[in-house]
Amino acid sequence: MDDPAFETPSLDLNTQTILLHASNHDLEALKPLLRIPGNASVQDPETGMTPLHAAISACGPAAGTAGSLGEGEEGEGGEEVDIEKAKEVVKELFLAGAIWNDLDAEGETPGCVAWRLGRKELYELVVEAGVRAEMLLGLMGGYEALESGEEDEGMDIEEEEEGEEGDGVIVVRKGEGESNANADITTGEKPQEAKNEEPPKKDVNSEDYLKSALKFEDDKLLDEDANGVMMAWETDIMRRSVDLLLPDLKPGARILNIGFGMGIIDRMFRATSPLSHHIIEAHPAVLSKIKEEGSDFGAAWEASAPEGGKYVVHSGRWQEIVPKLLEAGEVFDAIYFDTFGEDYTQLKLFFSEYVVGLLSPEGRFGFFNGLGADRRVCYDVYCKVVELDLCDAGMDVEFTDVPVDLEGMGLGKDGEGEWKGVRRRYFAVDLYRLPICTFMG
Ligand SMILES: C[S@@+](CC[C@H](N)C(=O)[O-])C[C@H]1O[C@@H](n2cnc3c(N)ncnc32)[C@H](O)[C@@H]1O
């Protein structure tokens, strides 16, 4: 059939039929259609709705849900919906290749919809599928797509299998936009993205970042594209991290911190009177700030190390400095890792290859856990992914939930409150899962 006038309606009919069966939770009608490759992830061209969105949103809000799976708001299942049937449909869709993180026109993934409606069981199914997909992508080298640009966002798994750059990038901290949610799989554009009038996205990568000019403000450090490198609202997270990395804040510890930023965590480490305190920092502007007169980490600090210890700022990328520390036989009781402009491959490389040689047997390792934190479902998926990868590297991780009062702290909306002047809200979930890692016993 060459005439597009004939093709378009039949394509639409296919999509609409699938979406209808999905929203009716009609598994029998859906199953034969799902045998055809691609059908599990069709998208309505107007609404961006996929069969997963349809199956989940048709459930409506769970009883007693005020809009999300907040505390005490267990999705109990509305009387009118047979949630078991919905679960079967969602499971079948995943078996048939449905994509867990496609965005609809409202910018929601199926998991976002389940969360908003308080449908906990469906939400968990999406998270499980997300973890499976991301682990698979990692195995296939999907995370290697370091320099993914906007055009990459729409790639589907098949394209990635062919070795092209794709959506396998996990946002660790700031910078990249919603790289952890899929755009439209055919065009690479987010459906109706213009609706939200977002600033055009510019990819952040380590090389460009380390060359960029920085803006130091009292409460934030920005790169030249106004991406938030570090912000003062994270002070409580840094405080809790130090408290958990150094139980009882015992003096005399050997500490390694990677990424100085605003020096928030280093000031806290410094206050514990460590035996050794090594800082690795790569950005020339941050390094100049550290060397400025009156800095807390200048020559006077370096000279103040107790006997047998060492206080030092290493200038350079951790990728170059860390092998030298290993060679020198340095060992640490607490290691913290918090860089900017790097993706998950680098964090994973650090804990898989280097922590084993740098951390004392009873030592503790932590990192800024911003993995996918611009979206709740992605955050939950990537917390599990990192847990599995840490396990693979021989480490146990314990997450401590730190509430983040988004509204109270002025973090609720893009471009407002704390985010004023910051290009993108990189943290949009109301709890921070603080990881403390130790060697498996
Ligand atoms: C988010 S800030 C760290 C904030 C810090 N935790 C604090 O409490 O202020 C990230 C820092 O890592 C630095 N950085 C980025 N890539 C790096 C690399 N490869 N090696 C060392 N430092 C790096 C950045 O220049 C920046 O100063």
UniProtKB/TrEMBL annotation:
MF GO annotations: protein arginine N5-methyltransferase activity
GO biological process, one term: methylation
EC number: 2.1.1.-
Keyword Cytoplasm: yes
PROSITE patterns listed in its UniProt record: SAM_RMT2
Top-level class of the enzyme under EC nomenclature: transferase
Bias type Basic and acidic residues, positions: 190-207
GO-annotated cellular components: cytoplasm; nucleus
Alphabetized UniProt keyword annotations: Cytoplasm, Methyltransferase, Nucleus, S-adenosyl-L-methionine, Transferase
Subcellular location field: Cytoplasm; Nucleus
Keyword NAD: no
Compositional bias annotation for Acidic residues: 148-167
Region entry Disordered, spans: 148-207
Residue span, RMT2 domain: 202-441
SUPFAM superfamilies: Ankyrin repeat, S-adenosyl-L-methionine-dependent methyltransferases
Family: Belongs to the class I-like SAM-binding methyltransferase superfamily. RMT2 methyltransferase family.
Role: S-adenosyl-L-methionine-dependent protein-arginine N-methyltransferase that methylates the delta-nitrogen atom of arginine residues to form N5-methylarginine (type IV) in target proteins. Monomethylates ribosomal protein L12.
Assembly information from the UniProt record: Monomer.
PANTHER family associated with the record: GUANIDINOACETATE N-METHYLTRANSFERASE
Name of this chain's protein: Arginine N-methyltransferase 2
Native species: Amorphotheca resinae ATCC 22711
